[in-house]
Every structure is written in structure tokens, then in C-alpha cells.
UniProtKB/TrEMBL annotation:
This is Transcription elongation factor GreA. The keyword DNA repair does not apply. Necessary for efficient RNA polymerase transcription elongation past template-encoded arresting sites. The arresting sites in DNA have the property of trapping a certain fraction of elongating RNA polymerases that pass through, resulting in locked ternary complexes. Cleavage of the nascent transcript by cleavage factors such as GreA or GreB allows the resumption of elongation from the new 3'terminus. GreA releases sequences of 2 to 3 nucleotides. PANTHER family: TRANSCRIPTION ELONGATION FACTOR GREA (PTHR30437). HAMAP family: GreA_GreB. Keywords: Coiled coil, DNA-binding, Elongation factor, Protein biosynthesis, Transcription, Transcription regulation. It holds the Pfam family GreA_GreB. Gene3D superfamilies: Transcription elongation factor, GreA/GreB, C-terminal domain, Transcription elongation factor, GreA/GreB, N-terminal domain. The keyword Coiled coil applies. Residues 6-33 form a coiled coil. One of its GO terms (biological process) is regulation of DNA-templated transcription elongation. It comes from Paenibacillus phyllosphaerae. It comes from the Bacteria.
């Protein structure tokens, strides 16, 4: 990961800080204990428990480094920075599929905290890019694998 600016909402910042704290205080200890137990089984050259624990340790240490770098390069979007006249990072936007009339609500976030299952989409996603900077009532076209979908921006809020 480069030193690219990471855009986070207050919620996103809190979640990353909690994950980092958990990795440092809980997961590190757990995996160190697993390694210690596995070493107790004897010959580590053919010990799958030891190998698994060492792999997990490497993953945890890598994730800690990644999270620390993300937090160092973070730009936090405060709630009072969120404009409800135009779509911006942190906005909660209701869009309507022009063809079918279905409405969906999404919160626009930076890529580090996007989670489509929670309706949190990245500002770099096709829909996120299309609606960023647009006003209520605007119709945007989004290229998707199935073709082009038109969405109308119905409402813009902040939560």
C-alpha cells in the first residue's frame, strides 16, 4: 500500500483503531501462546500446528503494519463537513433506478471502509464515482457489466 491518503469517516476511524488495538493486545498474545504450545509438541520441522501459528502471526503483523500506515495517512471527514446539497464522502444518498423504480440508500465512504453488505459504498466504486458532487434530482448513468443503469438522486442526508 502506498502513502495514498485514506479518507475515513469518524465511524471508519473508530473501527480501524479498534481492530488495531485488538490485534496488538489480544491476537498477538493468542498466537504467541499457540506457537509456544506447538513448540512443546517437539520437532517443529513437520509440525502443522507450528506452521499454522507462524502463518497467522505473519498475517497479524502484516495487518498491524497496514492499519498503522492507513491511520497515519488518514483524512477524517467530520460530520459538519458533509454537505447535504451535493453528494460527498460521508453523505447518505437515496437513489432510484430510473427504469424499475427501485430505491436504495447508500453511504458514500472511502475505499478503506466500504462494505456493500452494509450499504457503505466507496467513492471509487462505479456508482460512488457517478454520484459524487451531484445534486438532488440529478440523473446519472452507471456502467455495469450488464450495461448502463440510470439512477436519479432522490435525497442527500448525513447520519
Amino acid at each position: 500500500m502506498s502513502d495514498k491518503e485514506i479518507i475515513l469517516t469518524q465511524d471508519g476511524l473508530k473501527k480501524l483503531e479498534e481492530e488495531l488495538e485488538n490485534l496488538k493486545s489480544v491476537k498477538r498474545r493468542e498466537v504467541a501462546e499457540r506457537i509456544k504450545i506447538a513448540i512443546g509438541y517437539g520437532d517443529i520441522s513437520e509440525n502443522s500446528e507450528y506452521e499454522d501459528a507462524k502463518n497467522e502471526q505473519a498475517f497479524i503483523e502484516g495487518r498491524i503494519i497496514t492499519l498503522e500506515k492507513m491511520l497515519r495517512n488518514a483524512r477524517i471527514i467530520n460530520n459538519d463537513e458533509i454537505d447535504i446539497d451535493t453528494v460527498s464522502i460521508g453523505s447518505t444518498v437515496t437513489v432510484e433506478d430510473v427504469e424499475f423504480g427501485d430505491t436504495m440508500e447508500y453511504t458514500i465512504v472511502g475505499t478503506a471502509e466500504s462494505d456493500p453488505s452494509q450499504n457503505r459504498i466507496s467513492n471509487e466504486s462505479p456508482l460512488g464515482k457517478a454520484i459524487l458532487g451531484k445534486k438532488r434530482g440529478t440523473i446519472v448513468e452507471v456502467n455495469v457489466p450488464a450495461g448502463v443503469i440510470q439512477y436519479k438522486i432522490v435525497d442527500i442526508n448525513k447520519k
